[in-house]
Write a structure and sequence with these properties.
By secondary structure, the protein is an all-alpha fold. The chain contains ten helices and no strands.
Length: 183
């Protein structure tokens, strides 16, 4: 199948954001990369169903989210490393303060329920509006707003953050907590 170069470029341009979203859902880089690849394959195969003039990123994020939930339903009985002891042996200790902060942030993010985590990543880190995030998740805008608010509150509680100034200099991390644009 020959793909329109503009559609192909739009798909490839979305890969970094798709990967970040997939990592937040999977909490495993290798599985996230596989999920992004599966998303792109599905999008490529069904590119004729994409409506020109609509939001390509939202379409791809929806495909990724649906693929994740399909995979999650299949794998929910698997527990290859339930207590995380093997995974803990594969980690290297961070050498810089910002890397340690990011690790703490990632660990705190992993403690959030999936629905709150995905809403926060879509709105806070990926730059989608509440309306776009609601379309991607297939729920009401108010539900997304509530999930984002609960996620931010819970993150602040987990990380003992009183204000965004306590968190550190990383603009992307601040954007997730405060809801401001980090670009």
């Amino acid at each position: 199948m020959r793909l329109d170069p503009a559609v192909r470029d739009a798909m490839l341009g979305a890969v970094p954001s798709l990967r970040a979203y997939a990592i937040s859902l999977c909490r495993n880089v290798d599985r996230a990369d596989d999920l992004v690849q599966e998303t792109l394959l599905r999008a490529w195969a069904h590119a004729d169903s994409f409506e020109a003039g609509t939001n390509m990123s939202a379409w791809l994020f929806t495909i990724l989210r649906n693929a994740f939930h399909s995979e999650y339903r299949k794998r929910r009985r698997e527990v290859p490393d339930g207590d995380g002891t093997y995974a803990a042996t594969l980690k290297s200790q961070p050498e810089q303060h910002s890397r340690l902060q990011f690790r703490e942030f990632r660990d705190a993010l992993a403690q959030l329920p999936i629905d709150q985590c995905e809403a926060l990543v879509l709105v806070g880190a990926s730059g989608f509006s509440y309306e776009q995030a609601a379309d991607i998740c297939g729920c009401a805008v108010g539900t997304i707003k509530s999930r984002v608010n609960r996620a931010r509150s819970r993150l602040a509680e987990i990380m003992a953050i009183d204000s965004a100034d306590d968190f550190g200099p990383d603009r992307e991390q601040r954007a997730v907590l405060t809801g401001t644009d980090h670009r």
